[in-house]
Amino acid sequence: MDRLGWGILFGTVFHILSWQPSQARNWVYPDSDPPNILLIYVDDLGYGDIGPYGNHLIETPNLDRLAGSGLKFTQAYAAAPLCSPSRAAMLTGKSTAQLGFEFVTKYPQDSFQWDDPEWLGKFEGKSLISPPYSLNLPLDEITIAEALKSQGYTTGIVGKWHVAAHNEVYKGWSKTHGPVQQGFDWAVETFGTHPYDRTQQLPVGDGMYPEDELTEKTREFLALNHTTPFFLLSSFYFVHTPLKKKIPWIFNKYKAKYPSDTPDEIIHYAVNVELMDHFVGRVLNQLEESGLEEETLVIFTSDNGGNPEIANNGGLRGSKWNLYEGGIRVPMIASWKGKIAPGTVNSHLISQIDFMPTFMDLSSSPDRLESWEGITIVPLLFDCSVDWPERSLSWHFPYYHPEGDEFYEVPKSIGVNDRYKSQTVPHSAWRQGDYKLLYFYETESVELYDLSMDSSESKDLSKEWPKITKRMTHDFREYMVKVKARIPKKSLE
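The chain above was modelled as a monomer; its predicted structure follows.
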């Protein structure tokens, strides 16, 4: 028997708790016409980095405006603690464990196998061997774009893709597994003004913001004469490192706001959050100028938690790269003029894998694939008091991070806003209601937290509450068997 006792089942029938649209029609959809959908998807934004989520230092007037006009979710989750798997899960409505897509994409030459000597060499000195990288989201996976296109939507994407092997340059779009091959009619590859654009980054004059091609192409799409409903994924590289730095007037403003001993990199990060907010504001302004506000559902969110060295994860433990709350709980705001009540807050448990069934529900499609793990959240958009089922969610990160020798150079402990990378070992997380279980593959150990009382995950209750721990471990194991999750192997196997 292997480390999780995968072959042992407990005689119960496994199910993924999902709320089928046909079972959820106790809400009233306020319009017979399918809405446009604008998904503004930013990169590495911490839970506490913007005004609507408690940040009083960084100026985010446009996101404040968006939250004031719509609905703020306080328990919204990315599907993974880093970019590629989170995006792949969001696009398909499936968990990373079910997809077998759990780490960031690499270059085509990084296509390893379990028994590849070069792959095995990466785990010298470690007790487990992680699954080889999944470089490309398979073309037979149905994406949100393909699903909505089948319902008559025009589909578009601008900016970051990052669910396929890099083409020529880091994060360059694949020619064989890019957005065009996955259902997007209108696709613009651009880094915008983010430093990934390797052209010269010129200083910006006082009181001025740089022009951002990613933003302007998003505006261009919104300004088109649309004769059908559209889905647009405006996929920003901000606020991922490297940070844009040649904007002295904003830097000096935050230099005066922050404590005198604040590292410059954190101040540069604040500059980049303000930049991101400015670009989002230009997109929202174009929506208004085009007269689309009453016809368009806008969702703003991030692909994972913030980088621990610079971001503010809002009092949550952990950060990007691990499955504590700081790595996976993210800001999420939904706005739809005249449909979503302004200034509302919702604390129900939702995930970005819910986008697929939600958007399809809004498109009036009666179809639902059994493989979708997400549930429709349409009722929550219009009524925060609606009865909501208790549900289960999974996260799976069977890797070591940082990669290479740097793993041994960083601290082992994972705290709250500790400002450093930590050693992340292969682990998974399983949430049921208020309880969250973390399973660590090296030690075959678990931690249990009650997030209703302890959102910072400071007190492990696994020993105090053995029955809950046993039940959740059992459910987690069954789930991993059901979805055929890729489990790290023992080094000597």
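The domain at 33-116+137-389 is CATH 3.40.720.10 (Alkaline Phosphatase, subunit A).
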